[in-house]
Amino acid sequence: xxxxxxxxxxxxxxxxxxxxxxxxxxxxxxxxxxxxxxxxxxxxxxxxxxxxxxxxxxxxxxxxxxxxxxxxxxxxxxxxxxxxxxxxxxxxxxxxxxxxxxxxxxxxxxxxxxxxxxxxxxxxxxxxxxxxxxxxxxxxxxxxxxxxxxxxxxxxxxxxxxxxxxxxxxxxxxxxxxxxxxxxxxxxxxxxxxxxxxxxxxxxxxxxxxxxxxxxxxxxxxxxxxxxxxxxxxxxxxxxxxxxxxxxxxxxxxxxxxxxxxxxxxxxxxxxxxxxxxxxxxxxxxxxxxxxxxxxxxxxxxxxxxxxxxxxxxxxxxxxxxxxxxxxxxxxxxxxxxxxxxxxxxxxxxxxxxxxxxxxxxxxxxxxxxxxxxxxxxxxxxxxxxxxxxxxxxxxxxxxxxxxxxxxxxxxxxxxxxxxxxxxxxxxxxxxxxxxxx
Length: 438
Ligand SMILES: Cc1cc2nc3c(=O)[nH]c(=O)nc-3n(C[C@H](O)[C@H](O)[C@H](O)COP(=O)(O)OP(=O)(O)OC[C@H]3O[C@@H](n4cnc5c(N)ncnc54)[C@H](O)[C@@H]3O)c2cc1C
Known about the structure:
By secondary structure, the protein is α/β, with parallel strands linked by helices. It contains ten helices and 19 strands. It has one domain (8-434): FAD/NAD(P)-binding domain, CATH 3.50.50. The protein has helices at 44-55, 84-88, 97-120, 141-156, 191-204, 254-257, 275-281, 320-334, 378-393, 420-434, and strands at residues 8-13, 34-40, 60-63, 79-80, 132-135, 160-163, 180-183, 187-188, 208-210, 219-220, 226-230, 233-242, 261-270, 287-290, 297-300, 307-311, 343-353, 360-364, 367-371. The longest helix has 24 residues, at 97-120. Flavin-adenine dinucleotide binds at residues 40-46, 63-66, 70-73, 75-79, 214-215, 243-247, 249, 252, 265, 267, 297, 310, 349, 351, 373, 375-378, 381.
């Protein structure tokens, strides 16, 4: 394999490309001593819960251990879809059919909720519904995609097309895949701008946002209040919402940490490309992913200047610079046209996986929580933040389908995922068996 030592553009950064459009925010103002609601975690889930509570007249404080928005929400691929992970991701296997249809229904609702939110509140989030191509990695995967597509169309009402190998260049400037599936209804947004818009919206609603205020273990205080110790003082609150997803840790919320496995995901951004080249790589600026277990996810930047490419680069965790080389090799396997192009950014984010592959909202240790995106949370975690706030406010007619009593802890696990290399290695090995040499 070539060594790819000369791939870093001048000024290369190991921070998200999205931060060029909107950086996470620092706010070191003092914390209040009392609030109706403390939200732990300033991602999409936390901010949206905060806005809804504040608009209902509650005093709300959002805390983040780092800068506001420095978690997964400004590190993602920004792709948006409905029900896709649920229907084809294996999460619904073995679940009661009535619950399945409610989960799929709410997953569809989360996508509609996101689109309506952005449109009606005029959020500058760069949302474009350009479609998404799913490439068939192994030969047999084209047939699998056909089954998945039929299921998605039936369960979620999306418009699906299939392109065999001879026609796939209509969707992607590559002969790498064994055909693929195109869904018109999916798209993408700018994760950094969307987060900034949610921050501004939460502040306008009256919520107080504070960075560098890591919450510790929450305890019960006098008068039924919760005591939230933080790195910058203690807050007494009526309600606490924990929205820490892939950054959940045992030293703050041990019970949740035993149920969430943080998995790192990596992305790179190329330098600006000639417009003709980008249009050749991905016609009509669609989103692209594939059928590998260790899948790739890639897209043009919302301004149409460069390619953003994501995947897991290996079995073990590695630095942004090391990961960049591995991702570059994967990118060139699909688009050899990119040989010689330099990279301007490489970054890492942490998602939270759960045993049942489903996100969860609920209550544990007296705190509410919305966690467990399983790699798909731009729409869903925004929505689950909203549902958590509605639950506290008593606005729901019925509980969310994601609000289930059963939330299984990972056996022999206390928040440190020692077993991840084994699983990742197994997935990669099976991808290799499906398509040796790639
Ligand atoms: C590389 C990558 C690509 C992705 N691509 C997509 C995609 O294309 N489409 C999609 O739908 N999803 C995607 N995702 C997933 C998506 O980004 C997440 O589901 C979503 O952003 C989660 O939002 P959140 O609010 O739940 O958590 P986060 O945004 O991760 O926020 C959690 C916050 O909690 C804070 N925190 C943790 N512990 C404490 C504490 N004790 N005290 C105070 N603060 C604390 C953290 O600092 C963090 O800021 C991707 C994720 C990654 C990493």
